[in-house]
Amino acid sequence: MQKPTALAIRTPLTKSPAHPFSSLRISPRTLRNAAILVAATSTLTAFGATEYGNRWQRNRYSQPTPTPTPTPTPTPTPTPTPTPTPTPTPAPAPTSSSTNNYYVATTGSDTNPGTQAAPFRTIKKAASVVKPSTTVHVAPGTYAETITSTVNGTASGRIRYVSDTKWGAKLVPAGAGANTMWKVDGGYTDIDGFQVDGNGGTSVRQGIYLTGGNSTVKNSWVHHVALNSGCDGDGGAGMVADQGRGAAFNNYDFVGNLVHDIGGSCDTIQGIYHSSSGTVKNNIVYATNYGIHLYHDDHNVDVVNNTVFGNRWYGIVYGGCENAYNNGCPTSGVNIHNNIVYDNYGGITGANTAVDTGSNSIKNNIVYGNTKDFELSDHAVAQVSGTISANPQFVNYIRAGGGDYHIKNTSPAIDKGLSTYAPTTDINGKARPLGAGIDTGAYENY
Asked: Which DSSP symbol is given to 424?
């Protein structure tokens, strides 16, 4: 059955009282469904009067015949995304700038090639095969051996011996009769991060001994050397740079080391002994005889930002040959700056010293709590200024070691050092200065 067509009157029909409707005719009678508007004519007759025309509009109630949906264009099959080229695995960052690398471990063998997968067993084996631009990586462990390294590096290709873990590679005496635990005759050599334990024996007189020139010991820990050796005039030290008068090689650096319990009661065995040119910076030295000792041909040495305490004799000594003012073996160009020299028998001394007048300087040191803070002979001429005579205020001071030798926030050492000759970092590798100036001593106050 067809649904009735709805009609909408475009002009409203009104019924006049004077002319009532007589009839209403709609033509055509049937309006077909369509998708468009259809007009119909109606005739209204009122009591035989003239017909009045009107137009009716059919409302489109029905759904128009939909326009056929065009057949969609098939979506093209996408071009397969190309398989990305794998990103190459980055090469591991080199552990050093060296061209050659050898490896040593307590699990290795000296018949191995010395690679990381097949390391040597001893450091001395590695020392026998190195050449310029070589780094020897030593794994943690105890190495009972006596080492003499004789191969020279170059200024652009140093030879480096590195403990993979700081103080993890530990060198101990290889039985009785060893006088020196590690002697470095080759120049341009670095020893970095080792522990050297003399075991308090009687025969070992030197921990690390540099003779090759342009060489460095840094970040290392040397202790309990020659504690029971007695005083026989042979001398010794935890660390030594000894070229003697007029030597061809110079420039030895001791940087960021911990040195203690050296020499027992014998005053001829020192903590750090230096008789050439170079630097002694950011070291902590205690429980030795002379803490830092410059002697014989000491010249152009910067002794800066060290913490020296609790030594049986003097904290810092500088001086030339015996009766040097008569034999042409002067001390010159020595700069002793920014050190803490505390609670030793003596503080800073310059004895038996011939000098180039005015070329040595002792500046901005904390020298306090020593039996004698300064003892300078008539010939030990130096520019002395900026000395602070006050307790350095360590966080936890223990004279025999085992304390905390950082400085407190209230320490008079803070910002009181000179930047001239000062290292750019402290013993922990933290940047200097933190505040307005360099802090004195081995630690910057963080």
From this structure: S
- 161 and 38 both lie in a single domain: no
Spatial contact of 243 and 209, defined as CB atoms under 8 Å apart: no
Q: Does 84 map to a domain?
A: no
Q: Is residue 70 included in any domain, yes or no?
A: no
Domain that includes residue 367, residue range: 100-407
Q: How many domains does the chain have?
A: 2
Tens digit of each residue's pLDDT, the chain (446 residues): 444 444 343 444 444 444 444 444 444 444 444 333 333 343 433 334 344 344 434 344 344 444 455 555 555 444 444 444 344 444 344 444 568 999 999 999 999 999 999 999 999 999 999 999 999 999 999 999 999 999 999 999 999 999 999 999 999 998 777 889 999 999 999 999 999 999 876 778 999 999 999 999 999 999 999 888 777 777 899 999 987 555 557 899 999 999 999 998 788 899 999 999 999 999 999 999 999 999 877 889 999 999 999 999 999 998 766 544 445 566 788 999 999 999 999 999 986 555 555 588 999 999 999 999 998 765 556 788 999 999 999 999 999 999 999 999 999 999 999 999 999 999 999 999 999 999 999 999 99
Say whether both 54 and 104 belong to one domain. Answer: no
User: What is the DSSP code string of 67-134?
Assistant: PPPPPPPPPPPPPPPPPPPPPPPPPPPPSSS-SEEEEE-TT--TTS---SSS-BS-HHHHHHH--SSE
- 311 and 238 in one domain? yes
